[in-house]
Every structure is written in C-alpha cells, then in structure tokens.
Amino acid sequence: MDPEVKAVVVTGAHGADISEFATGMAGPPLPMVIDALEASNKPVVAAIDGVALGGGCEVALGCHWRLASVRSQVGLPEVNLGILPGAGGTQRLPRLIGADPSVDFMCRGAPVKAAQAAKVGIFDEVVEGDNAAVVQAAVDFASRQLNVDLATRRLCNGRAKTTNPEALAAKRKEYMKLRAGEAAPQAIITCIEAAASQDFRDGMNVEGMEFGKLFRGSQSKAMQYMFFAERQCFKIPGLESKPKPLNSAGIVGAGLMGGGIAMCCAEAGMKVVLLDVDQKNLERGMKVIKQNYARSVERKSKSQEQVDKLLSNITAATSYDALSQCDIVVEAVFENMDLKKKIFATLDQVCKPGSILASNTSYLNIDEIAGATKRPQDVIGCHFFSPANVMRLLENVRGPRTSPDTIATAMAFGSKLKKVTCLVGNCSGFIANRVMGVSGFPYLLHKGLLPHEIDDAAEAYGMRMGPSRMNDLVGIDLFGRERAKAGLAQPDKNVFDAMYKAERFGQKNGKGFYKYDEKRRSSRDPDAEAIIQQVWKNIGVQQTSMDKEDVIDMLYLPVVNEGRDEEKCSVGFKCLEEGMAIRPSDIDVCCVFGPMATTGQDIAVGQCSGRAELTIGAKNGRCMECQVVDRELPDELAGSRVQSRLAVAEGRQRSIELQEAYDADVQEALQLSEHHANLVKELDRLQADLAAERHHTAEVEENLRSVRSHKAQVHESARQAAVHLTTLRRRAAEKERHEDLQWIYSEDCALPSSRLPEASDELRRAFRTELEEAFSGA
Length: 778
Fold this sequence. Notes:
Main location: other
Protein name: Ehhadh protein
Radius of gyration: 45 Å
CATH class of the domain at 8-216: Alpha Beta
Strand order of the largest sheet: 10-9-8-11-12-13-14-15
CATH architecture of the domain at 8-216: Alpha-Beta Complex
Number of strands: 21
CATH topology of the domain at 8-216: 2-enoyl-CoA Hydratase, Chain A, domain 1
InterPro entries: 3-OHacyl-CoA_DH_NAD-bd (IPR006176), 3HC_DH_C (IPR006108), 6-PGluconate_DH-like_C_sf (IPR008927), ClpP/crotonase-like_dom_sf (IPR029045), Enoyl-CoA_hydra/iso (IPR001753), NAD(P)-bd_dom_sf (IPR036291)
Subcellular location: Peroxisome
Largest sheet: 8 strands, mixed
Domain 3-hydroxyacyl-CoA dehydrogenase NAD binding: 249-426
C-alpha cells in the first residue's frame, strides 16, 4: 500500500449483480476483497449514502468503521432470492451486533433505515447531507483513527455474542413458521450458530457450504426467476406515454377492500377520500382502518406518530362531490354490475377531466363498466387482492378503449403503492383468478376432506395460507351473493352456498370455514364442519383422509394440466393465446403474488413461464419433475393471435415429444435398474468369494511363516553341529599328533647319542625345539 496513504474511505454504488449468478462473477471474488479491506493496517471507513444491500452491505461490514447519511438504508436481502449472504455477512454481522438480532436482520431480508441501523451498532455515525457530505465526514473521521489498534476493529477476531443456544433454537422455530417451506432462513441460522460457536475461518467454511447447497437448489433458481419476472411486469411494449400526477385518490366503498386500498394510498403519501353513501358503513370502515393501525402500533411495526399522520391523510365522506378533484378514483363495492355501472355514471359527472376511473372488480367486464361513462379512455380495472393492504399483487385490466395515458398512470399507481403490478386483458377472472380457478380446492372439499386438512397440506408445502383460510380472508360472500341472486345456489349440495346461507362470510364477521377471535386468530369450528358434513351426507360422500402429497397434487396440478376444452391445454397458455397476458412470466407473477400468495418457492409445477416449464409426465398419479424448454416466447404474443396460436401449438407439440422421450427414459431407467440390481448381486457374490480367498491366503501365509521359522531353527542347529564336529575333529587330530610326537620323543630320549642320525647341530636343535613346542602346546 502507498506509504503516502494514511487511511482509506470506501464508497460505492450497489451490491452483487444477481444476473452474475448464471454467467459467472467478474473480477476477484468479493470475499477476498473484503478480507483485504479488513486486514489493512490502515484505517478503512465505509461512507454510505443511499441503499447498501447485499454485497454492498458486506463490503461495509469488512471496513473498520461505517458512516451513513440519514436517508441511507442497509440490508442483507439474499433470503428473498433463496440464498444467504455469501461474502462473510453471516459471520461478521453477528460478531458486530450479536447473534439474535442478526437472525431477524437476515431472515426478514428487509432494508433497515440508518437511524435504526446505528441504534443496533451497524453504523458508527449518521451524517446529515448528501454523498459528498458523507464522504467528507468519513475522511475527517478516518483522520482521527490513525493511532487506533485496528485489531480491535476487525470483526474476524472473536465470536458472535448470543444469549443462549435456546434463543437461536426458538428463532429457528419462529422462521419455520414465518417462512414455511423456505430453505434459506434455516441455512442462515445454521451459519449464525457457527458464528457464535466457531472461529471465523471455520464459520466461513460453514457459510460457504450452506451457500453452495442453496445456490445449487431449485428453490433459489425459482426465487431468482421471480425476482426478474416481478420487475419485467412494469415493462409494457410500445407504451411511451407518461403517467399523470398521482397526489390524491378517492375510494368508493368503505368495506374490507375499500378500507385496505385507502390504507395503501395513505401509506404512499397520497391524500385519500374514503366514500360510502351509508354513514354506518363509513364509520365501520374507518373503525376497521384504525383497528388495523392500532395492531401495527401494538406489533411495533409503526409508531403512534406515524399512524396519526397516516390517519390524517384519510378523509371520510358520504357525498360524491368530495371526489371531484381526485387524480384517481377506485370503485371497491361488491360485485354487482348494475351497481358498478351506476357508480361510474356518477363519477363521470363528478370527477375532473383526465381523472382515472378504476374498478376493483374481480371478474366483471371492464368494457361494460366503461360503457356507463362518456370517457371510456379513462376507465381501467385495478384489481387488488384481499386484504389490499397486505397482498402485493395488482392486476391492471385494460379495455379496448383504455388510453395509453391511463395505462401508464395505472402502472405508476401500482408502483407508487409498492405493488407488484401486471397489465392484463379483459376476461372473466382476468389472469390470477382465472388460472387458479381450476384448482382442486372445491373438488377436495366435496370429496370428504375438512378445510383444516387441505390447509395443513398447502401450508406445509410453502403457501402463506391454505385455500380455506384464503376464502375466509377474501370473503365467502363475494361470489355467494351473486350465485344466490342468479338463482344458481344449491346450499344442500354445495359447501360454499351452504356457508353463504349460514352467513358464514369469513373473517369479516368472525366465522367462515374457521371461527375467528377479536385478533382474527383462526381455530376449527364444529359448526362449520357440521355444515360441511351435512352437504357430504346429501351428496353421498364419506369423510376421508389423504397424504399431504396427494392433496397438493389435487390442489395445484389441475392449474397446469386441466383445460377448458377437449385439447386440455394449460389455462396459462390460453391466456397467452387470447392475448390476456403480455408475456409468460406475467402469468407466473400473478399466480405467485396473487391467489397462491407464496414466497417464491417453486409451487406452480409446470408454470407457464418465460422458460416455459411444462409438466410432461405423471407416475402413479403424481407429477414427476418438470422438463424445461429454454425458449423465450415473444412479447408480441399479446398482440398477435396468429403468433400466439403458433407458439401454443409448438408448446403442445414439444410437450408431446417430451412425454414420449420421458416414457422412453423411464423404460430405459427401469431396465438399467434391473441390470444394476443383478450387478449388485454379482458384486456381493464376488466380494464374498474374495473375502473367503483372503482368509485362506492369510492362513497359508501364516503356515509359511511357521515353516520358514522352523527351517531357520534347523539351519542354526545344523550350523552349530558342524562347528562342534569340526572342533571334535581338530581335537582328535591334535590328540593323534600329540601321541605320535610323544612316542617319538620318548624313543629319542631312550637312544644313545651315538646312534642318532648324523646331522648337523643346527638340525638337531631345530628338531628338539619343535618337539618341545609340541609337548608344551599339548
């Protein structure tokens, strides 16, 4: 590092690019960059102005200090993509603020404002001003830290603080319920447990392993697909018009839906007029709004000051004149065409020119409603889902005479309300209700399953709520009233009609498929179950039970496979063919954020998506894994019936081909499985023979070792015997020689010297010396 540099200030633009997950990340791995920042021997200060999410937040955690502007937000939202913070976030954040608060921070995945982040210890200072002011404040701050021991500021040192293991276990159970069916929250808690019990590097290894499992899983891919699909909804091909101003909104109808829409508009900063011609209904509606906000204060999701400000944005009225200056008016009365047409005729006379006139109808014809006005170009459907202040989807329903300005303004309205907004065509049920209208809930309910049994299966699968609870939330009277008026109700044979007749409308009056207490907590209701069982008796059905997996198949596979004609085409493909949806991914968005209300888990098996996932086979009544057709369908499908039909025909043909290929693969797999079983048996036999042979070989080797040992002993004995024999032979030879010399000596001594051979004196002395040596040696 440059010796002239005394400290470092880091500022940036954004976190990780999600598209890089599929294409590979550019540049050095982010964890290495963060490690280098943290290991720096010079002070490193993060200067944040705006939003620091994901990788941006993790970079900030790697710095020694963090400063932010008042308007800044920080967060680790990876859980919403089915993954976890993979650059040390699960290890550094718990070491900074503690394990328990880190669970909520990462498992909720919501951005946190600067003041709140500073309160828990993420930011060291919060600065007034823009980006330049924050950077300058960071430079000044860094200059005061030149003599600080940086080891005390490195989060990789030490372990996370936690209250106790039981607290984390309780958090795990909490998020099993809050984010049922999702793998990422549980993996995040596993990493946080490692941060509290292991060294940093060991914890990073746990983070890496858990990230890899999630990244390779199908759930994260589905959630990332939905991330892009959600943003794609706002792109309307060929729409160049600019939206009109949206500062005020009028809501006609103070019921459950109207009150929810009013809350959405107030929270978006709009001035709201809530109108109901019935004073009692209006008072009741305002009371419900206040109760909802009181619960928010009780849950501490809003302060009383915030609630007071929101309520000040809502004005109650009984006269249509109060709507005269509203930029947009949303009609939210019950589903009655005559009533809606009457209301729109009145709005046409009262509202200012250019005001957007929207209907919150769930299925009625927008064109017919627009016909009640002299300005059909300003009329559009704005289909909210109940409760409007909770559900994220908004379907904007265009009519043939709806102007581009109106469409652009309605899309901006959804964006302002922070709704996932899709533009759809005008047909019965539009997209979400039409596609989900073929679900198997009514079938199961009339085949002997109680509401809680169906809901338990759906919620275990990952749904926020089961279909019974969803009907209670929306209101059983929504369609029951119209069926009764049309003379279609059969309360003795139809469970829904029986519930409506018994005035069991759902949450709105405290009783539906379940009963509800004052806090809208549900519980089983013997009275509701008695009504259902009476209908069963009337139609000859016995109560039954079913595996949860079978319940899920019957609930949701009809959405994919059942058609409205003999061709059995997916309803999603029909929506494309008829031009009701702009693109396939819009249908997925409507299903996931609308009636299914799930968290992004891959639930609509065979969804008609941008990647056109098609269900291509079933075995034993269960859907097998989908095959993926990587073919983007053109946006022009919405406007070209011919292209739509061609695309659908290609899709059907491709589905047939895939079915045939699947059947062949299954047959081949069965043959391979049988062959594999035979190979396993043969392998077992060979392994047994090998074990026996190894045992025999071991015995032979042991015998051989014994023989060799005995042979060595024999050789040693033979050697010793040979040595002994040699010794004996030498001694015998020496003894014999000794005897010979002794005899010679004795004979020599007995002879007179005159008789000795004549020899020289030298020889005689030598001979005598030899004799003496021999005798002395003996």
